[in-house]
Each structure stands twice: as C-alpha cells, then as structure tokens.
Amino acid sequence: MRSGMLPVDGAELYYEVRGTGPALLLIVGAGGDGGLIAGLAENLANAFTVINYDRRGNSRSTGRGGATMTLTQQASDAKALIDEFAGGKALVFGNSGGAIIGLTLAAQHPEVVRGLIAHEPPAVKALPEGDPERDFFEKMGELVDKEGPQAAGAAFAEFVRGEGTYAWDEEVQKRFLGNLKHLFITEWPGFTGFVPDYDALSKAEFPIVLAAGAEDRGLNYARPSIEIAKKIGASWAEFPGIHMEFNRDAALFGAGLRTLLTEMHSRTADVPDQWKYEG
C-alpha cells in the first residue's frame, strides 16, 4: 500500500492505493474517512488497483472551512483521483453519501467512469411525492440546531441498523468523531438536498447498479436505491448485511462486491492478464 496527499482545488486529499489490476475507486459517505473502508480495499487488492481516500475536509485530508460542501466539488475530487491513479477511467463503488457522490460523478464526468455501484444512497428526495420519509433528514437538521452535532451523530448512529453492535477500529472512530461537526454543519445540506440527474444517468454508456443491504430491506436509507434504479433503467442488487457491512465484515461484503465488479469490468473491457490461465 502506498499513501500520500493529492493536491486538488482548495485542498489536499489523503489517499491510499493498493493492489494491481483494473482501477477501482472507493467513496465513503458520512464521516468521509477512508479507514472505514480500508478492510474492503485490502480484501479486493489481489484483483484490483484500489484507490481509497479521506474526503475533502475529513480526517487526514485538508480543505475544511466555512463554505457549504457541494456535490460538484466532491465529484471533481473523485475525478482528480481517477485521473491521477487510474489513467482517467475506473470502476467506482460508493456507499451512503459516497453513493450520492458516485451518482454525481457519473452524471457530471461520465468519461472517467467504467462502471458504478451505488450502495444505499440516502437520497430521500428520490422517494415518491407524499412519502413521509422524504423529510427525514430535515428532522435530523432540526436536531443539530437544537442539540448540536454530537447529539445528531448519536441519533443517526442509532438509526442506522447494525451500527453500535460491533467494534470500530479505535483510530478510525476517533477521526470519525472529529468529523461530526463538519458533517452536520458543512456537508449535510448537500447530501440531504440531493436529487439525481435522472436524464444524464439514464443516458450513461457504462453499467450502473444500485444496491442495498439484505438487513436493510424497507428502510429509508435503502429504499431510494430502488426508486433511482427504476427511474434510470438500471439494475438493482442486494448485498450482504447492513449499511456499512464492509466495516463489520469486509470479507463477506467483499465477496459480493468482487463478483459484481468483475462482471461489470468484463462488460466494458478485456479480462486482465492476471485472471487468465498461463499454463
């Protein structure tokens, strides 16, 4: 694994690159810390060149400031990583807010995406008009205003099924807690107001798969994935486990992701030499 800092517009992004093979960019959501998904990166590094990073303003990256986060800027950061470490084209996996960023990247910079898997984007605005869960995140914002980011973070963790039932890496958890104010004050409006660019996504010339965890059926951070898939004519898949199963059991989640990624890559490019029998 090699790591470093990549200069981008107004920030430096902490990155890690592992493995060899087709390029794969992993994008995390709330908390923006690549450590949450490092175990998955390790699991996939024997088949892919895996690019993992702390999002702008989070943990080991710089760029924290008073300006509200924009998804356009987040997509630009993801593109910069693909340009630098993947020769301008990569498979992309995003979870939660990272799935929202992945969908924005696919709509705004389709030339750098070989294929996208968007796992549980909490895009509640994609739910039908009149659905009572469309305003869920506004209610969380009200909690931030009344009781502060720490209280909102605790409430959100309780809401996300499965979190709190297993131990996080201590350093990752410490960094995550340090990101909560940035999340709820700076990033929250961009994530909660997200509406997919259905037209651009439906015209994508690469495979897009929306996905959700088997233990999250029917929940309001899993349901939007189905709605988005229907509206853009994309496939939908169920993965093992919970919202961040890759943090709880990287091997289990990685087995499902590996299968879909290899099939997705083989639809857009030749099978890499490392997968071919050389006897």
From TrEMBL:
Pfam families: Abhydrolase_1 (PF00561). Residues 22-203 form the AB hydrolase-1 domain. Keywords: Hydrolase. The lineage of its organism: Bacteria, Bacillati, Actinomycetota, Actinomycetes, Kitasatosporales. PANTHER family: AB HYDROLASE-1 DOMAIN-CONTAINING PROTEIN, HYDROLASE, ALPHA/BETA FOLD FAMILY PROTEIN. Gene3D superfamilies: alpha/beta hydrolase. InterPro entries: AB_hydrolase, AB_hydrolase_1, AB_hydrolase_fold. GO terms for biological process: glycerolipid catabolic process. GO terms for molecular function: triacylglycerol lipase activity. It comes from Streptomyces violaceusniger. This is Alpha/beta hydrolase.
